[in-house]
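Hello forum,

I keep getting stuck at the same step: I have a sequence, I want structure tokens, and every attempt I make locally crashes halfway through. Rather than fight my setup again tonight, could one of you with a working pipeline run this one for me? It's a single chain of 140 residues.
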Amino acid sequence: MKNTSGPIIYIDDDVDDRLIFKEVVESFGLNNQLIFFDNGQQFLDFIHVSKVQPLLIVCDINMPVMNGFELRKAIMEDDSLKKKSIPFIFYTTSINSKEIDLAYELTVQGYFKKASAIDEIRSTLRMIIDYWCVCRHPNN
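Reply #2:
Ran it on my machine without issues. Output:
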């Protein structure tokens, strides 16, 4: 059974970006719960006590408390979280080659630039979610 019903996690401290993400993803008519966090530490606190198996983590890079890179490192250093094999992608305004290289050194499954046009946002998020709904990986 594929895990297409797990929640979609969105980690970003920008309230406007969270609202746009919510509006766009809800427009797809999916049954997946959307769960939002302001930073990586909030997500870690949640996932350590939760029994949910997320479909996908969509994460910004630049956040207070624990940024996206620190979160990805923490996940990869935690055997129980690493074993969950939750697809992890960066969705950020920060596009530079050093950060892209670091992201892939941390074995992320994607790195996407946040668009400003709603049609491009919708297209990108639809593609990402559709891909992970059909992709075979250890948690499905």
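The domain at 8-134 is CATH 3.40.50.2300 (Rossmann fold). If your local run keeps crashing, start a new thread with the error log.
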